[in-house]
């Protein structure tokens, strides 16, 4: 776990003072820069030491065969793994005769900071070589939000005390050795030397270019770099290139007070179709635009871009500096993962590490897109357009499985299913309703009719068709969906998972409604009146099991009859359970990895009475071990809704600090985007009580004791709203747009030019005592 | 399919006239010889052409890693695969300058016959080489039942018409190329060159010896051969050995009327512990004993052994010559698979092929041992002693899974689980009750108290403990067993599988009863009064779900609510379904691969009323596709019980002719021992209505129209019984032992020295109309 004060809790930055090599891999993920197209892990400029070197381009992957000791029909044959592409962030330094390496010599001072408003990673290091030569090194790195293909580094070195010979080597390197492996099935497969060289043009004329292809997936990757060098008169520059390396060497001698300043612009491009010369030209052109903007121009654009983002997305938190930092850190990474997607997926870890092989999951639609929909909606369009682009593959997969409509992959980069364990992959059909849910939420929030017609409708229709093929009416007329896996990965292949059935029902209704709004386009998709009527019928008849004896909803039919997991006999070191117990045992018992029924309480709240919510929440609290990062924020939201505000606050802390405190000990593989989104969800949907849908935006604010004030901004129906919550009341302001109706704790009001302030009532719900499995209680929040 | 008249339906032999190379692999399995220790596929003497070369020693296997694209806790890391050991049956022939190869020249005559009373495979071939030289070759091969380590071949060649130069090469060859592979997951993994040479002593002094070890599993295998050669005076014999080959070459010139006669004795031994010199000596010693007996002695011993077997096991069938042949063929292969086990397992395919990697499954306990228990009980002791010998591994596996008692492997050679797909492996816990069932049946049949105390009790106790750990009492006090897989492999990981629960309940009761009979030994196993009382409690409270609406038992809880498989839309070429549909789809629908609930009707008949049996049988008939060979015989038994005698007769045909007609098209991988046992089961338990247990032996004979008379023998309580069934009546005789009480159609009678004849009543049950899935009806029997 990253111990404070490794990171200082500043409101607009994540700052590390000193350098703990044991935390290097984690900090590389935390300090990763990305714009959704390019991702650079926060590796040290000089390349070594590293936790895991990482340079990623969205959707550049290699294929690998998926082995099965016993094969089965419909098992995916090959998996996709994100590839560590050409590293352009490498800048080595020689001081006199000693390479700058923090493992040698003396590191007098080291500080790194991720600036959430500037969009830069800065570093300052004061170091003496083993022979005593002291230098001050500063660098500022950015991945441009405004120039999609471009990253840049300002690297400066100056001697301290006495003159120094200094050599700086700026490089492009492909096929770096990736040493990190793990027995943990969640860790990424490691691919050795995935890139085949096609072209290496040294920087003799200024620009260095390298073009490679992946061996099996045949994707072409181009990288280029160019430098602006500012040093004493006798500074000498050389360029070399060969094999998988291209190098610009700058040698000089610096007097105290003198400084070598190097700006490195580097650019990337990739394509499955474009030729080597085309890719070559493309990255050179990107560099030309970057040079035209210049370092200062790139920085100014970056800040302007972020100012605009924060104006519509910021959440202010008073009373808890760590949560304040964490929610902004989370929003920043969400933006980084999605700003320049352009019809590519948002992987579970963004472009911050190779965890989960770089795959995208349902996390995107259920945790990430809800935040982006209200804060940076154009990213939601991009992510859902990617889903639309892989619809043909999802339809082919459904056909392979003997189903109609589309069966979206459980995990993928290119759109093909690469989950090799079907009970937790293929069977998790809820991903299709999750995609439909994200479509519906986006359309509700933005009233973007063109998107609904062109992108939303095909997705809604294809997923509705899947549910019709997947379910059937039983003898009592109930529509059943048997043998599927819900969100909780400690159960699988069950009948009538409540989350799945409710989400599917919503999917069917929303598809039928969308068909009514776009009859021509629906006809084009072959939807008949009979078909959409069948969707409504199935939704109306959807079976939602209920345990009358216990007065709670079973997660799936029969769940509440199963033995309760023996929590008392489970040692703390046996979590996460999946690494210490067989699936067989987990699946057959009442033990919940992550919110499942409780997620249904959040996303399909209208299907439950307040009393049912309170009882259900209490029941599942006692069973939920949170071995997944996709749980705490949901538990926070429902805890808040049922009046367990202090418990919600604990869960907020867990969701928000997942990566800054490395709570799951795997931040080294990349940040947990869904959990980072969860900080916003826990604050806004939890303590703000925000719910939206059917054209209505509702709030029910109530703060926990540790938060004295919370203010958030969000976009809805073209308006920019501001809510300022204090313990006693909430003030609503309309920052942009026309007046609209809102709901505060169940009562509608009109918000126009003048702010509206409403008192926050106390929770009307009696507190149902809740407990968690022993040892799995969320940690108390002690705001610093 | 092997078309008749490839095999001639003789009562005591399986004879092939002519040679169809397309059927070579299948006939190699059908003509395989074995004694349970050594197995020789029916490969042609000259080695080529072959379907699959095969020489096996029981429990000689190689290890191979089991790959997982996504690993999981408790997944087996390595698999075991039966190894093709040193081939000692190879005898090549050169006629003038042409090698005898049936693919060249002219085969005037070719006949092979498996003699079920002599225990030999004979062959007669009259062949002209491409240059016209004609010879008559005859060979007789045996694997000795009385000399466990020994096999022998009498090989004779004589010229037809004119003199011939003849060279015979008799060999030992290790690491033969095994070319057969298949995409079918059921086919065996192929291991290349699994044997590492340790010693090769040529036959210079008469005996040739080869010693090898397997590479990873480190098992040492020794083989030896010696010859008796009888030819014209100028016959010359040479011996060579080197690498993986040892060769004795016999050259002679034969005049018409002269004959070269060669008797080859060869022997095998293997050990995980014994040294190379010890193994060397062991196989030489076995040869010495064989030479002492001589060829005629071995043949006489073989016949005596079989005469004794048939005296206690034979089933006579009149009116259906194919079934007559098939039931004897089945009994013969059962004996071959088990006669000389000596604490080794009976694999699913015996030692007749490498199918299923040579693994043993529950088939042994539920299909094979019931037949052996009543016909050759000492083999049942051996097979169950093997289970006892692997009990420590099964206990370790249970502990690994977080359970008590023993969890026997779903598939194994050495006792370690090597099923890599847990929903159809680990989760199929019924294997433990199946083993207990075989123990109980054997003890009931033999009253073998010593076996019960030393072998049965530890098995019953360990399996009872497993069930107690695996189940739990629910709020209504019912004992539930959730999340397990029953016999039907088209369902998995369900709650309260009726077969499993009933078998587990029986296991618990039988364990508690056995503890009462052997209190001292039980105390030694740590069984307390409280523990055995808990077993009885669990058994009494065992939950058996019942669908009141349909009036049938669901195979597992909830099964009857699932969608019925769309049989109408399933094409004939889409069977077996598992090769054309995902497990996901099969598991969630009402479609049954093989008898599951219907097997419970047979094995736990006392738990059902006759009316329930009829209704349940009819319900599952409509859902059962018989994509497994472990189904037809069970359906035959229950069809007969519920009065569907003609349907039972069809199922008898399917079970009995599985290999002789290659009904599942995989006899090439080895015979289906369980299905061969099924012929006996369908006849004796089906048309004989035989049920035994709790010290009582009951019959309820009723013949189908195609069988005019059936007589069977079986052993019970030290008696040898004979039942002679005609359409109208049944005559019982006591061939050995003291008088005893029997039951005929529900009425007790005493059988002493005098035969007792009783009329066969008509079935009292109304015929419930039954149908099978379209296209999956069993073929009508048309006895030839």
From TrEMBL, chains A, B:
InterPro entries: 6-hairpin_glycosidase_sf (IPR008928), 6hp_glycosidase-like_sf (IPR012341), Gal_mutarotase_sf_dom (IPR011013), GH65_N (IPR037018), Glyco_hydro_65_C (IPR005194), Glyco_hydro_65_M (IPR005195), Glyco_hydro_65_N (IPR005196), Malt_Pase/Glycosyl_Hdrlase (IPR017045). Gene3D superfamilies: 1.50.10.10, Glycoside hydrolase, family 65, N-terminal domain (2.70.98.40), Maltose phosphorylase, domain 3 (2.60.420.10). PANTHER family: GLYCOSYL HYDROLASE-RELATED, GLYCOSYL TRANSFERASE. Residues 761-784 have a biased composition (Pro residues). Residues 690-751 form the Glycoside hydrolase family 65 C-terminal domain. It comes from the Bacteria. This is Glycosyl hydrolase family 65 protein. Pfam families: Glyco_hydro_65C, Glyco_hydro_65m, Glyco_hydro_65N. Transmembrane segments: none annotated. GO terms for molecular function: hydrolase activity. Belongs to the glycosyl hydrolase 65 family.
């Amino acid at each position: 776990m990253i111990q404070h004060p490794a990171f200082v809790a500043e409101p607009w930055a994540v700052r590390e003072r000193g350098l703990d090599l044991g935390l290097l891999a984690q900090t590389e993920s935390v300090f990763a820069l990305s714009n959704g197209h390019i991702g650079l892990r926060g590796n040290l400029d000089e390349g070594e030491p590293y936790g895991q070197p990482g340079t990623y381009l969205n959707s550049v992957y290699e294929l690998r065969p998926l082995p099965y000791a016993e094969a089965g029909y419909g098992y995916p044959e090959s998996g996709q793994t994100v590839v560590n592409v050409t590293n352009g962030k490498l800048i080595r330094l020689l001081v006199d005769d000693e390479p700058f390496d923090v493992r040698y010599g003396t590191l007098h001072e080291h500080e790194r900071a991720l600036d959430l408003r500037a969009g830069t990673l800065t570093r300052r290091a004061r170091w003496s070589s083993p022979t005593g030569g002291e230098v001050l090194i500063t660098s500022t790195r950015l991945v441009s939000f405004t120039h999609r293909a471009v990253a840049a580094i300002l690297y400066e070195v100056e001697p301290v005390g006495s003159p120094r010979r200094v050599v700086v080597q700026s490089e492009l390197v492909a096929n770096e050795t990736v040493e990190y492996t793990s027995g943990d099935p969640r860790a990424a497969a490691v691919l050795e030397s995935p890139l085949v060289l096609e072209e290496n043009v040294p920087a003799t004329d200024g620009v260095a270019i390298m073009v490679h292809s992946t061996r099996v997936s045949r994707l072409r990757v181009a990288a280029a770099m160019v430098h602006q060098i500012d040093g004493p008169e006798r500074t000498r520059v050389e360029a070399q290139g060969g094999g998988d390396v291209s190098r610009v060497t700058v040698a000089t001698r610096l007097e105290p007070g003198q400084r070598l300043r190097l700006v490195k612009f580097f650019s990337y491009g990739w394509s499955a179709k474009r030729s080597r010369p085309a890719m070559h030209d493309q990255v050179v052109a990107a560099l030309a635009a970057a040079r035209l903007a210049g370092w200062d121009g790139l920085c100014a654009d970056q800040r302007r871009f972020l100012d605009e983002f924060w104006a519509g997305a910021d959440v202010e938190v008073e009373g808890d500096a760590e949560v304040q930092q964490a929610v902004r850190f989370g929003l920043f990474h969400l933006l980084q993962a999605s700003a320049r997607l352009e019809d590519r997926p948002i992987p579970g870890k963004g472009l911050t590490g190779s965890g989960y092989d770089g795959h995208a999951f349902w996390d995107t639609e259920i945790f990430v897109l809800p935040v982006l929909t209200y804060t940076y909606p154009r990213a939601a369009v991009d992510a859902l357009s990617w889903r639309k682009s892989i619809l043909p593959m999802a339809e082919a997969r459904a056909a392979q499985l003997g189903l109609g409509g589309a069966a979206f992959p459980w995990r993928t980069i290119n759109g093909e299913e690469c989950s090799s364990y079907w009970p937790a992959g293929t069977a998790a059909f809820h991903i299709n309703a999750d995609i439909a849910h994200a479509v519906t939420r986006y359309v509700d929030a933005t009233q973007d009719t063109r998107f609904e017609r062109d992108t939303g409708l095909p997705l809604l229709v294809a997923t509705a068709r899947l549910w019709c093929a997947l379910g059937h009416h039983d003898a009592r007329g109930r529509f059943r969906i048997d043998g599927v896996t819900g969100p909780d990965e400690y159960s699988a292949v069950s009948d009538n998972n409540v989350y799945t059935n409710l989400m599917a029902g919503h999917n069917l209704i929303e598809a039928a409604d969308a068909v009514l709004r776009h009859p021509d386009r629906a006809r084009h998709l072959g939807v008949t009146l009979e078909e959409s009527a069948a969707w409504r019928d199935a939704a109306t008849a959807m079976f939602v099991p209920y345990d009358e004896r216990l007065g709670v909803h079973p997660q799936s039919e029969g769940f509440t009859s199963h033995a309760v997991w023996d929590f008392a006999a489970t040692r703390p070191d046996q979590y996460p359970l999946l690494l210490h117990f067989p699936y067989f045992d987990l699946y057959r018992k009442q033990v919940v990895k992550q919110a499942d029924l409780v997620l249904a309480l959040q996303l399909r709240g209208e299907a439950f009475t307040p009393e049912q919510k309170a009882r259900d929440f209490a029941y599942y609290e006692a069973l939920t071990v949170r071995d997944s990062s996709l749980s705490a924020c949901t538990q926070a939201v429902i805890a808040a809704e049922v009046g367990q505000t202090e418990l919600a606050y604990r869960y907020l802390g867990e969701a928000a600090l997942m990566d800054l405190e490395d709570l799951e000990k795997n931040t080294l593989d990349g940040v947990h985007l869904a959990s980072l989104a969860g900080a916003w969800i826990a604050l806004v949907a939890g303590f703000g009580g925000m719910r939206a849908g059917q054209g209505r935006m509702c709030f029910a604010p109530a703060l926990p004791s540790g938060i004295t004030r919370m203010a958030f901004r969000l976009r809805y129906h073209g308006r920019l709203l501001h809510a300022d919550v204090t313990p006693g009341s909430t003030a609503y302001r309309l920052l942009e747009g026309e007046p609209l109706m809102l709901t505060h704790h169940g009562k509608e009001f009109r918000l126009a030019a003048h702010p509206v302030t409403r008192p926050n009532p106390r929770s009307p719900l009696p507190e149902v005592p809740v407990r968690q499995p022993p040892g799995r209680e969320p940690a108390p929040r002690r705001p610093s």
